[in-house]
Design goal:
121 residues, mainly alpha
Length: 121
């Protein structure tokens, strides 16, 4: 996961905590430095923008965006293929694929149960 997506995910995960936070009653070491957080997120956003703006004209063209997305998709696809090809023979067999589907289905079931348990609390 790249830094931008990680920071965005961390920010989204922090929203419920931030919504409940009473920063006025917290000690300075417990207070959230929103300005610092915003500055860091802006820095990460700028880095990501600069990666996409390959011709450095200050804009991301459709071609630049598509090329970036194709490269990212290829990286993720190669990684997921490697994970599915458990015997490392360069092919995904029906058994390897079925094992993946069974694991994914099991993980989704666990996630849905956890969500259901949270709602019932």
């Amino acid at each position: 996961m790249n830094k931008f997506k990680y920071a965005l995910l961390c920010g989204l995960l922090a929203i419920p905590t931030l919504a409940r936070a009473d920063v006025s009653t917290k000690t300075p070491s417990q207070q959230i430095d929103f300005a610092q957080l915003q500055a860091k997120l802006q820095e990460i956003s700028d880095e990501e923008f600069n990666k996409l703006d390959t011709d450095k004209d200050g804009n991301i063209s459709q071609e630049e965006y598509i090329e970036y997305m194709v490269q990212e998709t290829r990286k993720k696809s190669a990684k997921s293929f490697s994970q599915l090809d458990t015997n490392k023979d360069g092919k995904i067999s029906k058994d390897e694929y079925n094992e993946f589907v069974n694991q994914a289905t099991g993980q989704m079931g666990k996630f849905l149960k956890m969500m259901q348990d949270q709602v019932q609390k």
